[in-house]
Specification:
CATH topology: Immunoglobulin-like
Pfam family, one: Kre9_KNH
Strand order of the largest sheet: 2-8-7-4-5
Number of strands: 8
CATH architecture: Sandwich
Protein name: Yeast cell wall synthesis Kre9/Knh1-like N-terminal domain-containing protein
Structural class: alpha+beta
Largest sheet: 5 strands, mixed
Helix content: 10-25%
Keywords: Signal
Order of helices and strands: HEEEEEEEE
Domain Yeast cell wall synthesis Kre9/Knh1-like N-terminal: 32-111
Signal peptide: 1-24
CATH class: Mainly Beta
Amino acid sequence: MVILLSHQLSLACIALAAASLVSAAEFAFTEPKLNTTYHPGDTVNIQWHDYDGTKPTASLWLGTGQRALHWHPYKIIANLTEPFPTSYTWSIPKNFKKQRYYLVITNETPYQPKSDYFFVA
């Protein structure tokens, strides 16, 4: 009886943890793909899923360095407003710094999803 109750409690904890991850994951990038290389002057079609759909505003940033909790903002690309889009077309400036980047969507929540790394070469 104690083992069964403990097992049920463990399953309940796992289910609760999984549900909190899904609710925290408000966005998920689908483009650009990992290690895609772009060049100054290229147009990048940035896409993401919006699982929440209740945000009035958010910002789309370029990050450099490690994709970590304390990421390194490099440049803001766009301020997004309602109706909230799930894509954005960005033209890479001709004199843009050549290096590895990732994208970050920021809003009023602590969760800030990051895209895969991509390169401007």
